Amino acid sequence: MQALHDMDVSTSQAITTICPFCGVGCGMTLQVQQSGAGTRLSGIAPQLNHPISRGQLCAKGWSTPFAIDAADRIKTPLRRTPGGFQPISWAEALKSIGESIRTILEEDGPQALGVISSARATNEDNYAAQKFARAVLRTNNVDHCARICHSPTVAGLKQTLGSGAMTNSASDIEQTDLIVVFGADPTENHSILGGHILRAREQGTRLIVVDPRKTRLARIADLHLQLRPGSNIALVNALLAEIFANNWQADQFLDARCEGLDALRKSVARTDADAGAEVTGVAPELVRSAAREYSQAKKAMILYGMGVTQYVSGTNNVIALSNLALACGQIGRPGTGVNPLRGQNNVQGACDMGCLPNVYPGYQAVAEEEIRNKFARAWQVSVAEHAGLTSLGMTLATLEDKFRGLILFGEDPVVTDPDQTRERRALDKLDLLVVAELTMTETAKQADFVLPAASFAEKDGTFTNCERRVQRVRKALPPPGEARADWQWLGDIARELGSDALDWESAEEIFDELAALTPIYSGMTYAGLDREHGLQWPCNKEAPQGTAILHSDRFPIGRARLIPVHHVEIDEPADDEFPLVLTTNRLHFHYGCGSMSRKSPLLERETPDGILFINSFDAHNLSLSQHSPVKVSSRRGFIETRAIISDEVPAGLVTMPYHFREAPSNRLTNNAMDPVTKMPELKACAVRVEPLPADAQPRTMDEILADEAREVAGD
Ligand SMILES: Nc1nc2c(c(=O)[nH]1)N[C@H]1C(S)=C(S)[C@@H](COP(=O)(O)OP(=O)(O)OC[C@H]3O[C@@H](n4cnc5c(=O)[nH]c(N)nc54)[C@H](O)[C@@H]3O)O[C@H]1N2
Ligand SMILES: Nc1nc2c(c(=O)[nH]1)N[C@H]1C(S)=C(S)[C@@H](COP(=O)(O)OP(=O)(O)OC[C@H]3O[C@@H](n4cnc5c(=O)[nH]c(N)nc54)[C@H](O)[C@@H]3O)O[C@H]1N2
Ligand code: SF4
Ligand SMILES: [Mo]
Predict the structure, then answer these.
(1) How far apart are CA 117 and CA 284, in angstroms?
(2) What is the pLDDT of residue 651?
(3) In terms of DSSP bridges, do strands 11-18 and 27-35 run parallel, antiparallel, or are they unpaired?
(4) How far does the centroid of ligand 4 lie from the alpha carbon of residue 119, in Å?
(5) Which segments constitute the 4Fe-4S Mo/W bis-MGD-type domain (predicted)?
(6) d(C-alpha 235, C-alpha 45), whole Å
(7) Cβ neighbours for 7, distance < 8 A, ≥ 6 positions apart
(8) Which is the closest atom of ligand 1 to the Cα of 309?
(9) Using the 8-state DSSP alphabet, how is residue 190 labeled?
(10) For residue 613, what is the enclosing H or E element?
(11) What average pLDDT does range 292-298 have in this prediction?
C-alpha cells in the first residue's frame, strides 16, 4: 500500500547537467523521481540541443547512473583503525584531522602539508581547494592530475603562444580541410569528438594520424606516420626542415606575428626527412607528403594528446607542435590551431582555478609580487612567497621525510601515478592522509580518514571542457548519507582550524568570488552561463560573449615565440634484459582508475580486467597464443595478465591500459620526469614479457602482494 501511495504522488523532473567523464563536456539530463520514499535517479538522457554532443552520449556517458547509484558509495566519514575502517561522525573526523594538521604546522610548518584536488570535481571545489592550501595552510603545495596529463601543454603553450589551452573549438573539426591527430586516440577517448572527425572524414576532410599504434583513425587516415615512441620532436623537426627547404612556410604570418624564425630555421636545417627517418622510423616520402599537405592546406588543425605530453620531453614536444603550426600560419583562424584534447571533464577548470603549485586562479604567477599582493588583499591573509611542490614532488618529499600531511580528493594515485610500489610506500609514510571519495579506491584504502564526497549529480557548480567552455552542473539528487560537496568539507576543516576563508553559502557565491579574481572568467555569472550552453573563456569586458578562437588578432604575449627544440631519447630504451618497450593507453569502455566506469556491468563485460597487446611477431617469438597468461616485468616490479595478439602495435612495442587495479600497468611504468613540469614518462618504459604455464590463471596484484607477504613471513 505504501509503495502504491508513493507512486501516486511521485513526480519526475529532468535536470540539465554535464557528463562527469571526459573533457568533451557532453550535455546530459538526469531524470529524477520524487516520491514519499525520497528522490531517486530514474534515468539519463542526452541533451538534444547541446552544441557539441547534439543528442549523443558515448557508452561511458550512458553509464553514469551506475557510478552515482553504486551500492558501495561511502556514506559516512571513516577512520582507519588496526581492525579496519570504522564509521565516525563528521564532528569526530574534523576534530582529529584538525588536531593532526595543527601538530604538523607547529612542528614542521606549512611546507610539510599539501592538497591534491580533483579534475573530476567542479571549479568551485577546485577554487576552494587551492584557497584552502594558500589561505588556510599558507602553502602553494597544491596540484592535481594535470601534472601527469597536460602540464607540458600548460607550460609549453604558455611560452610559445601565451595561453596553455585549446586554441580553437570543437566545432572547428567540421570547418577544416585537414585534421592532424597527433598522439591521441579520439574515437576511444574523446568519443563524441571522434565521431565528429569520422563525419568530417566522410565529407572529404583530409586526415593525418601520427601514432606508433594503428588506431581506429590511423586505419582510415590519408597518411599514418607510425613513428617510434618518443620521437615526436625528430618528426616535427623533419617536417619543418622540408617546409623551409621548399619555401612552404607562411612568410607573411611569420613576419607579422612571430619571433625567433632565424634560430628555428637554423636549428632544423641540420635535419630533413631522410635524417629524421633514422630516429622516427617513418618513411621519408610520408614525411614530405605530410609537410606539403599541412603547410599548403587552407585550414589545418592539430589535435593532440598524451602521446605528446607523457614523455620526459613533454614540454618540448608541445613546443615543437606549436612551432609547426606557427611556421605554417595554421593558427588564429577557424579550422586551425594547436588543440590539446584536455582529458578529464574538468581538468581545464582545475588548471584555470590555480590548482597548480606555481599559479593562482587564471594562471597568475605566484612568482609575481603584485599577484601575491592581489590575492593576499582579497583573502585578507598573508600568502606563501615561493611556488609549491608538484604532486610527484610531494611523493618524493615524503620519502625524504620532508612532507607529512596530504589532503586528497577525487584522484587514485595508487593506480594512476607511475611506479605503484614507490607511490604506496610514500602514502604509507604520511602522518596524515585524508581522502574524500565516492567509493573505496586503492588510495582511499591507505588513508587515515576517508570522507564521503558528493558526486557531480549531488551538487551545484561548473565544469570547464576542453574547448574552454564553462558549463553549469546542477544538483539533481541529495548526496547519499552524510556525503558533502568537496568545497563544503574543505570549509569545515578550515573552520576547525579557525579560518573563515571558505565560509560560503552556495556554489554560486564561490563562482562570483573566483570570477572577480580570475580575469579570463571575469565576465561570467551563473545567469550568463545558463542563458546559452555556457561560455568560453576569455569572457570579460572585451569579450562578453566569450571567445571561440584564441589568438585571432594578437597573442597574449604580443608576438608568438618560435623556440628550437631537439630530440631526446626516452629515459629507458629496450635492452637485453628488458627487450620490449611498453606504452600505456586507454580503452573506450573504461575510464581512469576504473572506480566509476567499472561500476557498470555493461562496460565491465566489454573487456577482460587487464590486457597486454602484443604484435604477432613478438608473440610468436615468445610462443604465445591468443589470451596466453603472461608475466610482464620492468625494473620496478611485475604484473600478471593475458596477452592479446594484435597488429595494432608494431613489433618491439607492447601496450597496456592503466584502468585495472588487478593488473596495474603503473606497477611497471617509469617515474623519470620532464625537467620543466615533472611529468613522468608514462608512455614508454622497458619491459620483459614471459609466458606463464598455459593453464595458469594470472594472479591479481592483491594476490601477488599476499603471496609475497607470505614468503617474507616464511610460510
Ligand atoms: N575511454 C576513456 N576516455 C578517456 C579517458 C579514459 O581513461 N578512458 N581518460 C581521459 C583523459 S584523463 C585523458 S588525458 C584523455 C587522453 O586521451 P589520449 O591523449 O587519446 O590518450 P592515450 O590513449 O593515453 O594516448 C594517446 C595516443 O598516444 C599514442 N602514443 C604513444 N607514444 C607516442 C609518441 O611518441 N608519439 C605519438 N605521436 N603518439 C604516441 C598512443 O599509441 C595512443 O594512441 O582521454 C580522456 N578520455
Ligand atoms: N600508465 C598511465 N598512467 C596514467 C595515464 C596514462 O596514460 N598511462 N594517464 C594519466 C592521466 S592523463 C590522468 S588525467 C590520470 C587520472 O588519474 P586520476 O585522477 O587518479 O583518475 P580518475 O579515475 O579520474 O580518478 C578520479 C577519482 O575521483 C572520484 N570522483 C569523481 N567525482 C568526484 C567528486 O566530485 N569529488 C570527489 N571527491 N571525488 C570524485 C572518482 O570516484 C575517482 O575515484 O591518470 C594518469 N595515469
Ligand atoms: S565523449 Fe566524454 S563527455 Fe561525452 S559522453 Fe563520452 S565520456 Fe561523456
Ligand atoms: Mo588526463
Answers:
(1) 45
(2) 97
(3) antiparallel
(4) 9
(5) 12-72
(6) 43
(7) 35
(8) 19
(9) S
(10) strand 612-614
(11) 98
Distance between Cα 56 and ligand 3 center (Å):
9
184 lines ligand 1 (CB under 6 A): yes
Ligand 3, atom nearest to 60 Cα: 7
Q: Which three cell numbers stand for residue 371?
A: 599577484
Q: Measured from the CB, is residue 342 less than 6 Å from ligand 1?
A: no
- Give the distance (Å) from ligand 1 centre to CA of residue 200: 21
pLDDT at res. 1: 42
Contact 427, 583 (CB under 8 A): no
What single-letter amino acid sits at 706? A
At residue 323, what is the residue type? N
Q: Which domains does the chain have, with CATH numbers?
A: 2-72 (2.20.25.90), 78-147+345-536 (3.40.50.740), 167-340 (3.40.228.10), 580-714 (2.40.40.20)
| Pocket lining: 416 vs ligand 2, CB cutoff 6 Å | yes
Q: Which sign, positive or negative, has the C-alpha torsion 402, 682, 21, 537? A: positive
Is the Cβ atom of 683 under 6 angstroms away from ligand 1?
yes
Rounded to whole angstroms, the Cα distance separating 78 from 563 reads 51
Cis peptide before 538 (omega within 30 of 0): yes
Tell me how many degrees the CA angle 422-102-107 measures, rounded to the nearest 5. 70
Report whether 486 contacts 118 (CB < 8 A): yes
344 lines ligand 2 (CB under 6 A): yes
Assess whether the C-beta atom of 249 lies below 6 angstroms from ligand 1.
Answer: no
Nearest CA to ligand 1 atom 33: 307
Q: Which three cell numbers stand for residue 624?
A: 604465445
CA Rg, the chain, in Å?
A: 25
Farthest CA pair distance, the chain: 84
Ranges of H-type helices in 549-613:
601-604
Which pLDDT belongs to residue 237?
98
Q: Mark 54-92 as b/e (b = at least 16 C-beta within 10 Å).
A: eebbbbbbbbbbbbbebeebbebbbbbeeeebebbeeee
| 461-464 sheet: strands from edge to edge | 461-464, 469-473, 535-536
Locate 211 and state its grid cell. 601514432
pLDDT over 70 at 40, yes or no: yes
The mean of the pLDDT values for the chain is 96
β-strands 405-409, 113-116: how paired?
Answer: parallel
Cell 591507505 appears where? Answer: 446
8 A C-beta contact, residue 288 and residue 278? no
The residue type found at 96 is: S
Look up cell 575502517; give the residue: 85
Q: How far is CA 513 from CA 96, 135, 533, 547, in A?
A: 30, 14, 22, 21
Q: What is the mean pLDDT of residues 173-182?
A: 97
Q: Which cell is 431 given?
A: 602522518
Tell me, in angstroms, the distance from the centre of ligand 3 to residue 536's CA: 18
